[in-house]
Amino acid sequence: MKIEVRLFATLAAYLPDESDGRSAALEVADGSTVADAVRLLRIPDDMPFIAMIDGRDAALDRPLGDGDVLSLFPPLAGGR
After folding, report:
1. What is the tens place of the pLDDT at every residue in 15-37?
2. How many CA atoms lie within 13 A of 79 on its CB side?
């Protein structure tokens, strides 16, 4: 099945070569999870991120569906 991945800030370096620099189509096996997609993208295990599927928080064990949009953001800090 095919999903769209959108990687932001420092995570954008892990987009596949054929990406447009912000997002890419990724072919994943049926039954794949967020963690499976992260492994396919070769994002290091020690790199923290926040995952969302179609704009909603997603745990690493959340299954992906055909056409889902998986967005990964580095954690943000700041403010007062």
Report:
1. 998 888 889 999 999 999 999 99
2. 2
Asked if residues 53 and 26 have their Cβ atoms less than 8 Å apart, the reply is no
pTM (two decimals): 0.90
Q: Using the structure block, give the residue that is written with the tokens 């953001």.
A: 73
Residue type at 30 in one-letter notation: D
pLDDT digits (tens, 9 = 90+) for 30-74: 999 999 999 999 999 999 999 999 999 999 999 999 999 999 999
Cα angle: 25, vertex 26, 31; to 5 degrees:
135
Q: Give CA–CA dist 29/65, Å, rounded.
A: 10
Q: Say how far apart CA 33 and CA 60 lie, in whole Å.
A: 7
Q: Are strands 50-53 and 56-57 parallel, antiparallel or unpaired?
A: antiparallel
